[in-house]
Amino acid sequence: MEKIVKYILIFLLFINVVYSKESKQTVQDYFEKVCDKKTCKIQALDVKNGYIKFYPLMAEGFGEFVIWKTKDKKILAGTVNYSCGPACVLSDLRFYEFSSKHLNGQLVKEKVFSEKKMKELYQKHLEKIEARGASGDETLWVKLPREGKDIEFGIMSDQNGSDTFVQTGLAKFNGTKFEISRTFKD
After folding, report:
1. CA of 5: how far to CAs of 12, 15, 180, in Å?
2. Collapsing DSSP states into helix, strand and coil, what is residue 118?
3. Beta-bridge mates of residue 75
4. What is the CA radius of gyration of the chain?
5. How confident is the model over 124-146, as pLDDT tens digits?
6. Which residues pair with 44 in a beta bridge?
7. What is the DSSP pairing of strand 106-107 with strand 151-159?
8. For the purposes of burial, counting CB atoms within 10 Å of the CB of 58, is it exposed (0-12), middle (13-18) or buried (19 or more)?
9. Which residues on neighbouring strands pair with residue 90, listed in sequence order?
10. Are 94 and 79 in contact (CB under 8 A)?
11. Beta partners for 180?
């Protein structure tokens, strides 16, 4: 009987250690599971808001990484990457789900975010801008939130030597996935 009690206590201690470690993870812990120190360098770390701005070490560009807590207590992470030279363009948008089942993250973009809808809205907005005489260097831009939960997306262009962002839409996080809506006026 004493052995059984001993094993139960050891098991409960083990569960407590695992649970404590999992619940204390920060945005940096999740980031390091998808981008290690050999390939990415953190430029800005905001643990409180779950935000990282980073640079890839092997290419020109930059990226952002953000985490959200879902309604079912999982961690959803989003990352956006831009390739630069001479201008920066969106090169990759990914979403990962972290859970006790997927400790290193599982790609879930199609489940939580409609890239197709975002690109359709961007294209409609771009056509409106081009009809009014756009500069021709416009590109799709995605802004992950440093504060808040919603993702902005729109058109980035060079206006007289400085970058100008015009919002096309908003992807609102509902605790499970992102609901995309149009924000530009006709």
Report:
1. 10, 15, 53
2. helix
3. 69, 98
4. 20
5. 998 887 777 766 678 899 999 99
6. 53
7. unpaired
8. exposed
9. 82
10. yes
11. 171
> Where in 25-60 does DSSP place strands (E)?
40-46, 51-56
Structural contact between residues 165 and 151, judged by C-beta atoms closer than 8 angstroms? no
Q: Which two tokens stand for residue 57?
A: 């070490």
Cα separation values, 118 from 29, 114, 122, Å? 29, 6, 6
Tokens of 33: 């599971």
Q: What local confidence, expressed as pLDDT, does residue 12 receive? A: 45
Any idea which residue has 């409180």 for tokens? 48
Count the alpha carbons within 13 Å of 178 in the hemisphere toward its beta carbon. 30
User: Cβ of 182: how many Cβ atoms within 10 Å?
Assistant: 15
Look up tokens 């030279």; give the residue: 85
Q: What is the pLDDT of residues 6-37, one digit of tens each?
A: 544 454 444 444 444 455 899 999 999 999 88
In the numeric block, which tokens belong to residue 81?
């990457």
Of the candidates 43, 31, 114, 101, the one whose C-alpha atom is nearest the C-alpha of residue 73 is 101
Give the three-state DSSP class for 4.
helix
Q: Would you give the end-to-end CA distance of the chain in angstroms? A: 76
- Calculate the CA 161 to chain-centre distance: 28
Strand segments (E) across 8-69: 40-46, 51-56, 61-69
- What's the rounded Cα separation, in Å, for the pair 63 and 82? 6
Confidence of residue 162 (pLDDT cuts 50, 70, 90): confident
